[in-house]
Amino acid sequence: MNDRNVFLVKNLFNYEKVIPPPTNLPENFQTVYLTDNDINCELAKNLGWGIVKKIEQFLNVEDKFERRKIIAFINSFPHKLVPEVLDYKFVFVSDSNIVRLWDEYIVFTQNCSNEFALFVTSGYYSDDRDTIMAECNQSANTERWAYNKNEIIDSTNRYLTELKEKNIDVDNLSVVSAKYIGWNLHHEKYELLSNLLFKEGSENLQGNIILSYMSGIYSNDIYNYNTKNYSGGILNEHNIQA
Predict the structure, then answer these.
(1) I need a labelling partner for 207 at 20 to 30 A (CA). Which of 48, 64, 198, 200 fits?
(2) Residues 6+ apart with CB under 8 A from 208
(3) Residue 186: which residues within 8 A CB-CB, separation 6 or more?
């Protein structure tokens, strides 16, 4: 098996502008650009992406939430669309609008080990804002996600019940970001966790809440890099809002 890692991004439905790989991506990464049209493929190749893949099976999907479910599928099962990633050590999945990664991203990836199946980051918020409940309130009142409001609330309440039943302190469970995750595809718990992530993502669009819940329930199998230093990151604007 290749000892390098993969940095995989997805850009479907022309959601993002095609840009080069992040300027400070660690050297031990192979880059993968997943998109759905020839123009983006050519741009990505010319801009320095290593593996460029075109997928066409989702081109006719127009419903907002169905599109969200496609992203949940990619986040959960990257190897089903890009089988080449199975030859690498770990697969880190992110969005395609990252110009520069935050300064500690390299530390996060270096700390990931074979002991864990899923790698996540947390600590973006502070105090009362850094809870699943606060993330739910914020998300449920986001106008562009109104079509999934009830599902976000219902799912969050279900997560909170289960976490409390397992005596997990929900007030001290930091919100996880769905933007920066990584997988150990060869871990014995990968199938369980990836199926759970996709199942929940097929009901509730808020990946941050889902991953926060999972980080509490499966803390022995999920490496959670918690920091308050997210400086240095630069993001490009989206072409459209989803």
Answers:
(1) 48
(2) 135, 139, 175, 176, 177, 178
(3) none
The answer to whether 133 and 206 are in contact (CB under 8 A) is no
DSSP string, 128-154: GGSSHHHHHHHHHT-GGGGGGHHHHHH
pLDDT tens across 12-54, in order? 999 999 999 999 999 999 999 999 999 999 999 999 999 999 9
Q: Is the pTM of this model over 0.70?
A: yes
Q: Which amino acid is at 106?
A: I
> pLDDT tens digit string along 136-165?
999 999 998 999 999 999 999 999 999 999
| 122 closest CA partner among 139, 95, 104 | 104
| DSSP for residue 10 | E
* CATH class for the domain made up of 5-235: alpha beta
